[in-house]
Design goal:
The structure is a single chain. Helix content is 42%, strand content 13%. It is α/β, with parallel strands linked by helices. An eight-stranded parallel beta sheet has the order 3-4-5-6-7-8-9-10. The chain has a two-stranded antiparallel ribbon with strand order 1-2. The protein binds NADP nicotinamide-adenine-dinucleotide phosphate (NAP).
Length: 278
């Protein structure tokens, strides 16, 4: 496993397991135990995924020490609107059965709330119960808005990012502030099977897969790592869980990274952070 260093000084694994749409307890625990066995040490959950309790269960069953793990959760949109992020955070900790998380993110920039939410996140960070805080789905103007008030710079901005949506301007904006970019739906997500299938069968990725004897999913995840982007592929399938972490024994050249960058079509599979209704 490779690690990145956050602006807090703490280390974060470059690759973790996403657990969006992992709702069934037995399947979820079993997927996370497979992941821990394969070497994963980072899990990305959220209040909105309704599975923090499953993450807690898997961690307890794993026998791993809490300090060996990197656990992320997120403040939901309804909890931002309720105006009590502190209460939402306390409930997340309770569901996880933990007394701290490694990273707490604002899930979406909810208009008229996200700036206040950031101030609440700072209080949580300063209490020591979130070792790092960050944002998700923030565009540059959202970052600029919290910059007006921040005393803590977000450690992470977790955004949709894959070869069809390379997010170069946002990567640059994050970098300017010392914020590390994290990719969600790195493999194209689970919403649109045709889109995902087409992307994973792209000729450029297939040829690189042949060259390195890797799958196209592994080529994408390695591309994330070459760019310093933390990645969190989701899978509940044991052989894919193993496949997705098998990206630390080869490297892409700068020209190959650029060839994948060139697959960009500015194609989102998820909601637009400036226009969502949940
Ligand atoms: N911050 C946000 O707003 C936000 C939004 C979306 C996601 N996320 C986070 O990002 C994580 C990843 O994103 P995601 O779940 O949307 O999508 P993803 O990781 O891009 O793709 C997951 C889908 O790909 C399949 N898959 C996994 N590994 C594969 C492989 N090696 N080859 C082919 N297919 C593979 C999975 O199937 P199986 O599970 O059946 O194996 C699942 O259907 C989420 O789980 C969540 O933690 C955050």
């Amino acid at each position: 496993m490779n690690y990145t260093t956050l602006n807090t000084g703490d280390k974060m694994p470059m690759l973790g397991l996403g657990v969006y749409r992992v709702g069934e307890e037995e399947q979820g625990v079993s997927a996370m135990l497979s992941a821990f066995k394969a070497g994963y040490r980072s899990i990305d959950t959220a209040e909105a995924y309704d599975n923090e309790h499953i993450v807690g269960q898997a961690v307890r069953e794993s026998g791993l020490k809490r300090e060996e793990l990197f656990i992320t959760t997120k403040l939901s949109n309804p909890s931002q609107r309720s105006g009590d992020p502190e209460a939402a955070f306390a409930q997340s900790l309770q569901r996880l059965g933990m007394d701290y998380v490694d990273l707490y993110l604002i899930h979406w920039p909810v208009k008229e709330h996200f700036v206040q939410s950031w101030l609440a996140m700072e209080k949580i960070y300063k209490s020591g119960r979130a070792k790092a805080i960050g944002v998700s789905n923030f565009q540059s103007h959202h970052i600029d808005a919290i910059k007006e008030v921040w005393t803590v710079v977000p450690a992470i901005n977790q955004i949709e990012l894959h070869p069809r949506f390379t997010q170069k301007p946002m990567l640059e904006a994050n970098k300017t502030h010392g914020i590390i970019t994290q990719a969600w739906s790195p493999l194209g997500g689970s919403r649109d099977a045709d889109f995902k299938g087409n992307m994973l069968n792209d000729k450029v990725l297939v040829e690189l897969g042949q060259k390195y004897n890797k799958t196209t999913a592994q080529i994408i995840l390695r591309w994330n790592i070459e760019l310093g982007i933390v990645t969190i592929p989701k899978s509940v399938t044991p052989h894919r869980i193993c496949e997705n972490i098998g990206v630390f024994d080869f490297a892409l050249t700068a020209a190959e990274v650029a060839a994948i960058d060139a697959l960009n079509q500015d194609h989102r599979v998820g909601p637009d952070p400036d226009n969502f209704d949940f």
